[in-house]
Fold:
Amino acid sequence: MKVLLVQPDAARELIGWGDLGAIAEPLALEYLAAGARTDSHEVRLLDLRLHPAMLRSELLAFAPDVVGVTGYSMHVLRNLEICREVKSLRPDCITIAGGHHATLLAEDFFEEEIDFVVIGEGVRPFRGLLDALARGDRSVSVPAVWTRTDGRSFRYGGDAPLFDVDRIPLPDRSLVPRDRNAYYIDWMRPIALMRSTVGCPYRCSFCSLWRIMDGRYHKRSIESVVEELALIEEAFVFLVDDEAFVNKRHMLELAETIERAGIRKKFFSYCRIDTLIRHRDMIERWHAIGLDRLFIGIEAVSDEDLANYNKRLEVAQVEAGIRIAREIGIKLFAGFIVNTNFTERSFRRMTRFIEHNRIDYPSFTILTPLPGTEALRSFDAVIERQPNGRPNWSLFDLQHPVTATHLPRERFMQEYHKLHQTFAPIFTEHRDMRHLITLRSQARRAI
Structure:
């Protein structure tokens, strides 16, 4: 079968700077492509973030039998739009939706333009579904797959069995050679993504990632990780594990094996601040083999807010971790959550914390009740809605308040963009000036 996998683009008119901050490789689709090609299907990958005007021409030229889309909550409406265009040009083409949002709220894809919804780890159910479709069976029940039976009615194929992460084929990075040099995160260009573990043992209240794997944590074998790493041509590698450094012994062994293999990369990874404090020697070992930067979710600058987010941290620990990173020589990208209950004083307090602790690269998101989090048990607090009453998922980009703000909304957004502007010069020597210009225009529009 001919399979077209589509990475959706962001709605720039909503997000403001759209995909300017980072465009990382579509790793999830590369995993799906590897599985499909293993079973002899012909696969193409279209990244609309890089080629926003190519959907129609690709559909007409390639004439796929199947189109698959993925994405987060912010991509739901865009993915439905993509699938409507697929059906308008190729009515018999089969459309499949998957990804984070589909796993947590599959019902948002129960529409006539969608034929199947894949949830959870997608490679195995996707392969099983393609196998059935190749046999002409469109009514098949596949574990972890919702099948449209009529109109907007869907039938679930049951839960998938536990999987062995090492049995998933390595991602196929050969499909988009023209795009490899275009993938970046800030000045890290070109950059590849890789995961060495799957899942997270922590339960932060604002995060839904641990629910994707039902709270389970899976480690890939050392051999598998090093095999993949040896195939990556990019100098920069972002370890996209939800929390890579949970198992100290495993990560020390991985570092030793990478060094023995003669692999030299510039690594970027997520890490909890308490992991950095407890296992300084592990982080130092990784720094020795190329770990230059860590993304630390600081989130809040008061003990009360940290407790509310279930971070199990105190501000004193955060500041200790920042000092340790500086002593090791690792640059910190620090994530901060701007709560919708912020006052003007709250914004000033966050600014002072960042300046006092000399955070290398602060980044900001607005507290958003994402699917799967404790904050979204119902839609009652969501003020941004679609005509059908469902949330306006396009605004769930972590850059818009979708619940009520303590400050008037216009004032809140003005303060939020001021926060970005205050620290934008940190990125000036690296980042495309378009990003900074867009921030200024966003701030002006917020006034």
Summary: Confidence is low (pLDDT under 50) at residues 13-19, 433-447.
